[in-house]
Structures are given as C-alpha cells and as structure tokens.
Amino acid sequence: MSRGNNGKYYLPSRQYRIVEVLLNTGPLSVEELARALNEKPENIMRDLAELEAKGLLRVIRRIKQVPVITGEGREVLIKRTPEERVFRVMYRCAGKSVGDFLECVGSEAGIDKQKARIGFQYLVRNKCLSVMNGIVVVDDEYDCHRAIEDASIIRSALEKIMRGETIGKDIVNVLKRRRMVRIEKKTIIIVEPSKVLEKLFREGLIARRELLTVVTPKPRSELEKYIIKEFDLTIPPPKPVGGRLNAYIEFLDLVRDILVSMGFEEVKGPHVELEFWNFDALFQAQDHPAREIHDTFFLKTDFKGKVPEELLSRAGKIHEIGWGYKWDPIRSLRPILRSQTTAVSVRAIYERGEGEYRVFSLDRVFRPETLDAKHAMEFYQLDGIIVGKNVTFKHLLAFFKEFAAALGIREVWFKPGYFPFTEPSVEGFIKHPSLGWIEVFPGGVFRPEVMEILGAPGVRAIAWGIGIDRLAMAVLGLDDIRDLFSKDLDFLQKLPTPILPYFISKTQASDVRVVSAPK
Question: What protein family does this chain belong to (predicted)?
C-alpha cells in the first residue's frame, strides 16, 4: 500500500478486490474468499499477509473437525455404493438362497462377497428385497426408490467433500458409520476487515492502482567491475518436479484406509506415557527386563502422572496375586517415552469396557535400539485389538491373513511366540526379497489378568503390534529401514507410489499361503 499526494492509500488490483469482497460480505475463510475472487487459495496468501501487516485485515486461525474421504469412500465415488451395484444385477440373481444370491451378485457386479452382503442388507432394510423361506425375492410391488435415493445422497455428499464444500452433520454421521469418511482436525483461516480498513473505505481514502515491478541496476560505474551476462529468453527453463507426499506417508495412509474398510476405528494416545499404561495395565511385572533402561527411554523429571484410584488398586491386587511381589503404585506413575502403541489399546479397553469393537493405533514408538538396516530408535507401530465375547485365537490368524492379502503378500509363516501379556501368542513372518524372512505380525490373546485390570473381564481381546516399517520396506522394495526417513529428494522422488492390491484387485485371504517350514 502506498500513499499519494492527495492523501489516498493505493492498493494493487488484487488486494483492492480482496478488501472490497470482505467489506461487502464480512468474515470469510480463505477458501471462500478465493472462490469469490475466482482465484486459488495459494495465490492470495501473500496478499493476505501484506494486508494483515498493514493493519487492514485480521487473520484468525481456528481448529475445525472436517470429514476426510477414506479408501471405502473413494471406491464409492468410482464404482457407486454396494446397494447400487447389487440393485443393478439383483433381478438376474433373484430366486436363489441368500448364499447363492450373494455369490451370483458378486460375480455379476464384480464385487466381493462382503460388499455384496452390505448392499443386500441395505436393500432389504429399505424394503427393496425380501427373503421368504430362505429364498431372495424381488417383487414388482417393492419400491427401491428410497434405497437408490439414499445412495445418491451419499455420493453427492462425498463429491461435495471432494470439492471442499460443507455438508450437514447428519450425513457426515452416516458416512462415518459406513467407514466412507474419517474425521480429522484442520486449521481453518478466517479473514475479516479491520476497523482501520472500514474507516479508510468510508472516508473514500482507499483506491486501486496497477502494480509495476521494476528492477533497478546499480550505477554504471559499479557495473564496470562485473561481467554482464545477457538473458537468453529463448532457452526453456528446466521443468520443475511436481510435489508429492513421501511414499512412506502414502503407505501409512493406505494402511489406515484398509483397516477402516475392515471395520476398525483409529484411536490416538500420548507419546509421553505413564509406566502404568505402557506396562502395568498389561500385567507386565515391575521387575521385567523390558522395563529396564536398556529397553525403555525414561524421562529425567520428578513429575508423577494420575490414574484413577480404583484402577490402581485393582492393578496392584492382581499383580501381587499373580506375580507374588509387592507392587509399587508410585513407580507405575513415572513418565516414559512409550515403547509400544499397545498402551493406546489398553486405554481404549478401559474407556469402552465390555462391548464389541475394533480399534487400531498407527503412530510412533521409541526404544533404545542400535540403528541398523532393520532397527531404529524411533519407528511406527501398528497396534490393534478386536474385542468381543466370542473372539478367539483363530480370528487373530484370520486377520493377519486378510491384512497380508490386502498388502499383496502371498506367503506368511506363523510360529508360536511369547509375550508377557498375551497367551496364546504368535509371531508372523513375511519374506523380504533381500532380507529373507522378517517378523512383522506379533500378536496374541490378552491374558485374563489384563482384561480384569482394565475392568472388562467378561470379554476377550485379540491384539497385535505390527512392525509397519518392515512391511513398508517389503511393499516399497527397500532393504534398509533408514531409507524410509531419507532426506535425499532425488531418492524419494524415485520411490513408487504405493497402490495396494486391496484397492485394485480381488485379493482374498484364501490367496495367502501359510508356509509350514520356511526356506
């Protein structure tokens, strides 16, 4: 902004348009303002910063929860909802038993049995189909209009999210329940005119003037000591390489989408954790070697955390009965850098109790490892649990096979394992092309003592802590874990975009071969 001799303040054309729109409309988000100007948000950020520095605008940052489309939602945008896909072929498959109907629909519509079942259930719920004496019936009297209209509303809502538009809370809840979106926190930038701008505009002291950028050379006497190189504008400049997410981050996002589509909900927990949640809640004795300084990062502080009194009391009794030693509640309140995301899982069980649910946590953990091709001091771990009254060890093995299939892994090797807080336990291995068989699927059934400490003795939980970094190495074709965190831009640019088979084929758990004796 410059001031003329006539007392007016002059703004460049785009900045003048910005203040004009805001004075007419009031506060707007950056995205809304950009749409009103027919500009991209990134094109006006510098103008907003300059106007804020001049005291003409106020820029407010707010945290807002926004829906983000998952892999399930992207599939709906491309291929339509399961109920729409079943509806298209249901007349060709009617008159069969439910099982045969689902197989027929899967073959005719090109969808897996699970999605066929989902579509079938929605059509039955909306009275588009019925089952009589075990046979699926399509009657001309049935009105499928509501089911198809609901599906159309779902797709329309997903398209609005893709365009950055706002949708109603009710439809967001529907999409979230159907695993088509997840909720993430986003910083929203709101821009509003300042009192100074309103006063200047009222008094007619703001005007528009075109901006001209001029390069002024040094005086000729100073230029004589330089070689002057002329610009050759006929030479094309090098093409800039387009930006992209780090391939490892893309891989982690796709893994999240797989788990959400399998019915899991992501949960979060603190990086600085209490020994109680990291160890004691898992019935891990206070003299266990894993709780020593060579396996855990301890914080130099006198701070002690807080845990509900009844939970501490219950944990103490179970530890003393089970392990036969005097349990120290003060030690359990010491802060550490968490060594496993299982701490997040046990928090979830304590909060949710004896229900049926599936949750996972994909986040960083910290251990004093020696850095080499397969180990790091800070790494990602994928932890998860399935909780229910009838959950068994077989469900854990089935999950590992299903998850391996989704990643395009065709061979796994299971062997009995031992972990302090699960029984029975298993160690699952996959074959890396360079490193051989590597362990990635450790898991088991939480011991009864764990569930009793957490206040959920009436249910079982299968749990795992997957070495997601090692899985990423296999999918991305890397043989050194350090490459996942490389700062070499040329190397990172050459990494493949991880497109998991789960999204592009009908890979099933039955396609995964369990190896009895690895070679």
Answer: Belongs to the class-II aminoacyl-tRNA synthetase family. Phe-tRNA synthetase alpha subunit type 2 subfamily.
- Tally DSSP H helices, then E strands, for the chain: 21, 19
- With 50 as the cut, is the pLDDT of residue 502 above it? no
Work out the number of other CB atoms within 10 angstroms of the CB of residue 164: 13
Q: Check if the beta carbon of residue 514 is closer than 8 Å to that of residue 412.
A: yes
Task: For the chain, list the domains and their CATH numbers.
Answer: 9-64+185-228 (1.10.10.10), 71-179 (1.10.10), 247-270+339-509 (3.30.930.10)
Contact 56, 19 (CB under 8 A): yes
Angle at 350 between CA 346 and CA 356, to 5 degrees: 90
Q: Are 502 and 251 in contact (CB under 8 A)?
A: no
Q: Is the pLDDT of residue 510 over 80?
A: no
pLDDT of residue 518: 65
- Cα 356 to Cα 178, 352, 471, 492: the distances in Å are 17, 9, 28, 41
pLDDT, tens digit, for every residue of 120-169? 888 888 888 888 888 888 865 556 777 788 888 998 999 888 887 888 88
3-class SS of residue 241:
coil
- Nearest CA-CA partner of 343 in 388, 282, 299, 396: 282
